[in-house]
Write a structure and sequence with these properties.
Strand order of the largest sheet: 1-2-3
Order of helices and strands: HEEHHEHH
Number of strands: 3
Radius of gyration: 18 Å
CATH class of one domain: Alpha Beta
CATH superfamily of one domain: K homology (KH) domain
Largest sheet: 3 strands, mixed
Number of helices: 5
Structural class: alpha+beta
């Protein structure tokens, strides 16, 4: 199973330091990706969103959950994440100039499928047989 945004129940929750670092990296990456022109065909003309950045406890690694507006499907999202991983060293260099941290984290891009999962759940809730079961007025 691929990595997901769900928390591992045995792991500690992220510290305030990790959360702050993740948000700092996320904001900087959003700006960098918005203004850069990529040569990779998988990234050209694609509006990329960064939903979340999770930093390791030592802040040297960051898992970046990314998605693309207008794109759907697991394979398309995986292709975009792979392309961003190919550009990770370039993005890390730009990130190092944008943020003030002791270390610029290694970036690991992961497709964020949570938006697709939410849309699928919403579709299930709209089905007549499910809506009927959820309606409290029938009781």
């Amino acid at each position: 199973m691929s990595r997901s945004r769900k928390q591992n129940h045995g792991a500690r929750p992220p510290s305030q330091r990790q959360l702050r670092a993740g948000e700092l990296v996320r904001h900087a990456l959003v700006e960098i990706i918005a203004r850069e022109e990529f040569r990779d065909p998988a990234l050209q003309g694609v509006a990329i969103t960064i939903g979340e950045v999770r930093s390791s406890p030592d802040l040297r690694h960051a898992n970046v959950f990314c998605s693309a507006l207008g794109k759907s499907g697991k394979t398309e999202m995986e292709e975009i994440a792979e392309a961003l991983n190919r550009a990770a060293s370039f993005l890390r260099g730009r990130l190092g100039r944008e943020i003030e941290m002791k270390f610029t984290p290694q970036l690991h891009f992961i497709p964020d499928l949570s938006y697709d999962e939410a849309a699928d759940m919403s579709e299930v809730f709209r089905r007549a047989e499910v809506a009927r079961d959820l309606d409290p007025e029938d009781e």
